[in-house]
Amino acid sequence: MKRRDFLKAAGAAGATGSLAAPAIAQDKTTWTMVTAWPKNLPGPGVAAQMLADRITALSGGRLEVRLYAAGELVPGNGVFDAVSEGTAQLYHAVPAYWGSKSKGILLFGSQPFGLRADEQLGWLIHGGGQALYDEMYARFGLKPFLCGNSGPQWQGWFRNEISSADDLKGLRFRTTGLASEMCSKLGMAVQAMGGRDMFQALQSGTIDAGEFIGPWTDSALGFYQVAKNYYWPGVGEPSSAEECAVNLEAYEALPDDLKQAVSYACESLYNPVWTEYSTKHAQALAQLVAEQGVQVKKLPDEVIVAMGNAAGEVIGELRENDDELVRRIVESFLAYRSAIADYMVYADNGQMNARAMDYDYGG
């Protein structure tokens, strides 16, 4: 989708107002989904609509989900509270946005130098993470599910080149979640904002650099028009999980088969969403380089190491959090990260290193 077409569609969302209670008629329930995204934003906006449609389909139409994009009923940063308070029944967003609720929430979305998309899901399903996720969100009257992942994000769009860690000091930079704390420790002036606001801030010079998601979504937002240096690897977010959170009271009121419809809709979309991101990121990156003059650049090793040390400080501080539940979440994450990292040296890392070697593979 071209940026002007996407922004035109997003701009159509402007009505505000209070949300109605779920409509129930002839064994049919209608739920309101609010999202953190503009309508049909490539990536998360598309995934949100896919989730609404899949819940409706898996329920046989007995649970119809109607999606309202950011700003249509509540602002994007207000969806957590809207569902927590029962104003809407469910939302689509990312855990990285809710650090003001609890720092422990941030680990369920992404961690600097942390888990990849498959590992993130593995932690929740096989490493005890889901029970902790449920326990944390129950404090706010929510039932959470992961329902997608962007895969590795990028370090972002920079107006100027980065040669050393000193170049980061004072840099005005858009990011979110625990990555923002990592960057702050390196002297960066971190700002949180949505994708469209990030474009305007880069264009006006209000910020010097910023990251959003990756080539597919980023190209739709037009960041390449105002910053040509596109840096990797995005160590601040080795993956970024998308979530659906349901009002806990509304969820528990469902019959068991409809609870399963909601749960399975989320679970069944995780891989399709993740693989769509990966495929379309690859396609978009080639186009950005070939047609838009984007300069793809690797962060200097010195900068990566500095970021790793800063990330270690962030995780260390979380281990000493006053909240006992946060501490348990951190320990569970670290135990899973350690175990899976040891194995991946032989498994995925070994395969990727082998694939990158110099040999003839059919051109």
What would a concise description of this structure say?
The protein has 363 residues and is α/β, with parallel strands linked by helices. Helices cover 47% and strands 15% of the residues.
Structure characteristics:
single chain, 363 residues, alpha/beta, D-Maltodextrin-Binding Protein, domain 2, 2 domains, six-stranded mixed sheet, 14 helices, 12 strands, 47% helix
Please give the domain count: 2
Could you give me the name of the CATH homologous superfamily of the largest domain? Bacterial extracellular solute-binding protein, family 7
N-to-C CA distance: 31 Å
Average pLDDT confidence is: 94
The name of the CATH topology of the largest domain is D-Maltodextrin-Binding Protein, domain 2
Biggest sheet features: 6 strands, mixed
SSE pattern, N- to C-terminal: HEEHEHEHHHEEEHEHEHEEHHEHHH
Notes on the structure:
- With 363 residues, the chain is α/β, with parallel strands linked by helices.
- The chain has 2 domains: 179 residues, D-Maltodextrin-Binding Protein, domain 2, CATH 3.40.190.170; 144 residues, D-Maltodextrin-Binding Protein, domain 2 (3-Layer(aba) Sandwich).
- Helices cover 47% and strands 15% of the residues.
- It is globular.
- The two termini are 31 Å apart.
- The N terminus is likely disordered.
